[in-house]
Each structure stands twice: as C-alpha cells, then as structure tokens.
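Q: What would this chain look like folded?
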Amino acid sequence: MAQSSGRRPPNFVILFADDMGYGDLACYGHPNLRTPNIDRMAAEGTRFTNWYAAAPVCTPSRVGLLTGRNPIRAGQPNNTGPDTVGGLPLSEILLPQVLKKRGYRTMAIGKWHLGYKPVAQLPTSRGFDQYFGLPYSNDMIPPWVKTNQPLHLYKNEEPIETMGEQGMLTERYTNEAVRFIRESGNNPFFLYVPYAMPHLPISASSRFSGKSRAGLYGDVIETLDWSAGEILRTLKETGQDGNTMVVFTTDNGPWHNLPPRMLAKGVEPWHTGSKGLLRGAKGTSYEGGSRVPGIVRWPGVVKAGQVCMDMGSTLDLFPTVVKAAGGEMPADRVYDGYDLMPVLRDGAASPRKTVWYVRGKLLEGVREGAWKYRFARGASEAGLSKEPPVPELYNLDWDPAEMYNVYERNKGIGDRLAGMLKAYAAEVGGDVSS
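A: My prediction, written as structure tokens:
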C-alpha cells in the first residue's frame, strides 16, 4: 500500500478524454496547443511515453480501464449504442465496487458507454454512488447515426434533458466534479471523468471558442486542460492535493480514418487530433490506435518529473488503485493489469512486458519489449479487406512510427511472437486473423 501524507485513505481521480491522440498535449510535443495544467501534472508526476489504452475504440477501452481485464475476457469487446440492450456483463466487477468496500464515495461524470438498458447497466448499479453524463458517444444521433433514440443527459438513473448544443458539456462536467470533491468532506473518494470530447462532433463554448491557435479542435483540448486545472485547484483548496492520485489519459487515438457519414452538420476532417509520429488511428492495431498519453500525479508519492519509457496500460489502473487504497483484488477471476506503484513511487522497472492489440474479438498484434508483431487484414467501413494479411514485425525502439517491416530479417522473433498471439487468443476466447 502506498503511503500518503493525508490522515485518511487516498483519493483517486481519473480524467479520461475521448479520441484524443498521442500528440495532442504540449508535453507530448504539440507545437500549437497550450495545455499548462496537464503539462504541470506531468512535471509534478510521471509521464509515460509507452502508455496504452486497452483497445482502440470506445466501449472496450472503458471495459479494460474499469475491470482491469482484456475486453474479450470481460465479455464486451465491441461498442454499444443507442439501440443496444445489455452491455458489459453484470458479473464483471468494476473498480468502484471494490473501492466502496473500503468506504469510498464514488462518482462517474461523462460518457458511460457500457450499456444503459436496462437500468442495471447504468453506473449507479455498477458501484458509482452518483452519475452525471451521456450514456454513449455524443455522435450517436442523426445525422451521424441512424437511430430514433434521443441522446439524453442523465443524472443518476434518470434522463434529465435531451442533449442539444454540446459546447458547454465539459464545463458542466467540471462543475459536477468540483461539487463532488467539495461535498466529500472527510470521506475518501473515487472520481471517474470520461469526457465526451474531443470525440466528434466537437464544439466549444463562447468562453473558449476561437481562443486557441489550433482551431476548433484546439479550443476543445484547451477546455479539457482548463477542466483539469479546476479539479486540481479544488483539490488544493480542500486540502486533498497531497492525498490524491490524479490520472490523465485517453481511450484511443484520433479518428483520422473517420467514415463519410461523419462529415455532416459542420464536421470537418481536421476536427480530429494528432497522433504525433505514430502510424494508424482509432480502430486500428497500429500504434496510433491505442498508444495514448498517460500521466499520473500524486504529490509526495509519485516521483515528480519522471518520464517513464517502459510500458504501461489503462488495464494497470485497476490493480494500482486497488492496492494503493489498501484493498484486495477479487480472487475469483483473471486480471490483465499490473500494480504500477513501484514504477510511480520508486522509479522501478515496469512489470508490464507485453501489450496485446485487440480489435473486437480479433487479436491482431502483440508487443514484447521493443518488438511488435502484427498480423491483420486491412479494414474500412466496408469491412475487412479480401487480401490476406502478411506478417509485420517492427522494433518500436528504433522505429516507433512502424515504417519498416523487418519480419523477413527476423523471422525467429516474429514467429515466436506469432505463437504467443495465438496462445493468448485461445486463452481469452478471441480469434486471430486469417
């Protein structure tokens, strides 16, 4: 258990952006975006350069974060939508359920996307005391998606309004987060903030519109940075700054490969983010699909100014938080995450040596150390390519942009990783490309 300077168990805040690319923060190299609050988190904490989302799309990425399990293993490897009945199996144990056993107050604010019909799928039935947000992605309304279901903003179990203009969403979420922190008093808390933005369609309020040098997308990112700053300020004002782990990360890479259906009602191709030097985008098993920013700040506990080049994942947040809270991992199931506190606190080597690249039920790649093996068909909105896949092997230390396939020169390494991929797919009940 991590020791903190507070007199009560530590608090945890997870800020989870949507479709924000690896290169969309100043501290990750964006030349035009101003993100001073998140940059300060990195300067005062640990910034990972090889941090991965659990999946390259929305729902399974959230599954991995909140369960600590591969989304295939957890039984929800694909996105849910407005017409979905069910969602993440109710047998899955979510992080707030474990923390509540330790006396934590819990709240989710933002995009849920793990199912909302029946009501047992909603956050308040899955370990969260309070909920305020959208039940799924902000584009799941006409003209972008064919559905008769209106997009409602929920408070706990009840839809309280039909969502229209979305420019104020981040500010409304932030106000709820500030309220929750202030009302927590002497009770330890877990606050999960899965923002709606910058998932398309993006919008910003008059307070932020036109203020960045990076267009509307930049306005949206700088609104998120303001939100992080407000939450950090509130922690300081309430005396909880030194007793709170704050994480900033994102669910997958930018939607550069967006389908034509999205180019409606003012949505433009440049309303997506920056993958930095990475190849691929949201929905792919190249690095741009799932390698994302990962920042952890906890003054006095997490090493300040540390840049970690070892691998970490949102899958690791479950065991890291549970153990830092003094809790016990459920013993009746297999987990895919690791406790990263020795990395964060002491600068130790990461226990994560492999990353699996999952798309739906397909295991399309594996990374072990510097080596990444990928075996996947090309994909588009029309479906999978008819062309058979070819083995790909990259050394991500030498070639983080995956420009040079060196499989033919390193068949022994590639074939060994291919065997690992098949074995893991069999273990979790997934498939491999053919």
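The two ends are 45 Å apart (CA to CA).
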